[in-house]
Amino acid sequence: MTQSVVVQVGQCGNQIGCCFWDLALGEHAAVNQKGIYDEAISSFFRNVDTRVDGDGGNISKGKICSLKARAVLIDMEEGVVNEILQGPLRDVFDSKQLITDISGSGNNWAVGHKVFGRLYQDQILEKLRKSAEHCDCLQCFFVIHSMGGGTGSGLGTFLLKMLEDEFPEVYRFVTSIYPSHEDDVITSPYNSILAMKELNEHADCVLPIDNQSLFDIISKIDLMVNSGKLGTTVKPKSLVTSSAGALKKRCKKPFDAMNNIVANLLLNLTSSARFEGSLNMDLNEISMNLVPFPQLHYLVSSLTPLYTLADVSIPPRRLDQMFSDAFSKDHQLIQADPKHSLYLACALMVRGNVQISDLRRNIERLKPSLQFVSWNQEGWKTSLCSVPPVGHSHSLLALANNTCVKPAFMDLRERFMRLYKKKAHLHHYLQVEGMEESSFSEAVSSLSALIQEYSQLDATRSLPMPDFPRLSIAV
């Protein structure tokens, strides 16, 4: 069994990370009721005997003593991390795996990347190496950060390069939260595009998620739950916005529901690596099968069901609906419509009581309405994990490498250019040591090149499907 380490950076990254660990503990508690430290739990948790000082307290098998998350928590303000350490999950985190400062990055990518990157490089590297040493077979680093602020975008992308240099064989999955139009950080377009250049160059897979999509999904769920219509009783614990257990005990914050959606995405993404299934998908298989070209590694994600209605009792119809929903724009975690764009590849990660025949039937049913590139008409990757999420009988995470991300990137570039043409707020960045104006032009050129790659693929949609020659077999 392989292990993964979660690196949560900045306020947003740490809040989502906290939700993820809460849900992961709840999920393993539901499955592992005997309290035995098994391979499934070891993928994200260490078992530690707290009576032993130093690293000698690691326990590889037997009863669970004290679980410690395989995580590194980084924030240049100490507020969120301190809150976690004083909250219900405080015992899950090893104090040796935390890095905080007091001043913060002031919503400035350059401060996060150039100042704090240099200042904390050795400390971060030491924490990462220590986390890696605790793993028998480290497969993946999950980086969680936001793109709009200073620490998440700047320091979050700085450590990506460090991970690439120090652990070149370990996959780098990045969950990036993109700002909405109503974002209260004026400089977020600068931060996002400077960060995107680093994502283009140093990430293996990026799951872009925008705040507006999360907000729209929550509004949709609230409308359904509060509609009072006959037949819309929602099962307890089935909302994708709900916390698992420990976090319910404290007051809920405005972003908790949004963070829980992202945490559920990560939970489903890693389910096949944690639990048994008839069709397992390793994390490295996602990159291998869904990323045909190095820079086109942005995967659009959708999660379904968002809730389970308590009185729907026709499994086949509900199951088919789950697959249909995964391709509708209302369920995407970024403002995009993959059904009307071009697929390079698609992964379906199914959990719960679903048969391979159900999976194949739904792929065949949906195929005619989806357009794949001519050279990868059978570009499907599938997995079946037998353990469903808590509160659901089954669930589906769809990951699509699709040209539908292009409009979101074009919109971000447009917002960047509005500021950059006027050189507005530029002096805040240029006064940081090591930051030059060429960094901005290089970053927007990098994004434009990415958009151009998607445009070239889109241009092939109108071309007739080539009739590839087939090998003739003499009988």
UniProtKB/TrEMBL annotation:
Pfam families hit by this protein: Tubulin, Tubulin_C
UniProt keywords, alphabetically: Cytoplasm, Cytoskeleton, GTP-binding, Microtubule, Nucleotide-binding
Where do the coiled-coil regions begin and end? none
Q: Which domain of life is it from?
A: Eukaryota
Which segments constitute the Tubulin/FtsZ GTPase domain?
55-277
Q: SUPFAM superfamilies per the record? A: Tubulin C-terminal domain-like, Tubulin nucleotide-binding domain-like
Q: Where is the signal peptide?
A: none
Q: Which PROSITE patterns match?
A: TUBULIN
Localization in the cell: Cytoplasm, Cytoskeleton, Microtubule organizing center, Centrosome
Which stretches make up the Tubulin/FtsZ 2-layer sandwich domain? 279-414
Q: Name one GO cellular component term.
A: microtubule
Q: Would you kindly state one Gene Ontology biological process term found in this protein's UniProt entry?
A: microtubule-based process
Which GO molecular-function terms appear in the entry? Answer: GTP binding
PANTHER family from the UniProt entry: TUBULIN
Q: What is its quaternary makeup?
A: Found in a complex with TEDC1, TEDC2, TUBE1 and TUBD1.
The family line of this record is: Belongs to the tubulin family.
Q: What is this protein called?
A: Tubulin epsilon chain
Gene designation per UniProt: TUBE1
